[in-house]
Design a protein that fits this description.
about 25% strand, two-stranded antiparallel ribbon, alpha/beta, about 15% helix, globular
C-alpha cells in the first residue's frame, strides 16, 4: 500500500540512502530487481538490508527506515523471504544467522 499521492517516479529510490527532515511513514522499503542489483557489497560481504533514510539530530544520524533488496529468484523461497523480512524489520531473534539466500 502506498501513501496517498505517492509518485512512482520520485518516490523512494533503490540504492540510495538519504538524510531526511521527516521520515517516511513506512519502516521498510522492499525493492525487487535483478540479482546483481539485489546484492550490495558491505565491507567485503554481500548484504540485502541497508539503511534507506537517516534522521539527523546534530552529529547523530540514526537509521529510521530500511531497504530490503530481493531478486525474482529469491521470491521462490518463502522461508528465505520470511527470514529476510524479519531481519529487515528488526525482529530476527538471531541476527548472526547466515543470509538464507546466499
Amino acid at each position: 500500500m502506498l501513501a496517498p499521492g505517492f509518485d512512482h517516479d520520485d518516490g523512494a529510490t533503490a540504492g540510495t540512502s538519504s538524510n531526511v527532515a521527516v521520515p517516511s511513514v513506512y519502516r521498510t522499503f522492499v525493492f525487487v530487481g535483478p540479482r546483481a542489483a539485489a546484492t550490495r557489497p558491505d565491507n567485503g560481504r554481500i548484504t540485502r538490508i541497508v539503511p534507506q533514510e537517516y534522521l539527523c539530530d546534530g552529529e547523530v544520524c540514526p537509521e529510521v527506515t530500511t531497504a530490503l533488496y530481493l531478486s525474482p529468484e529469491d521470491l521462490a523461497s518463502p522461508q528465505s523471504i520470511a527470514k529476510l523480512f524479519l531481519r529487515a524489520i528488526g525482529l530476527d531473534p538471531d541476527p548472526t544467522t547466515p543470509d538464507p539466500t546466499e
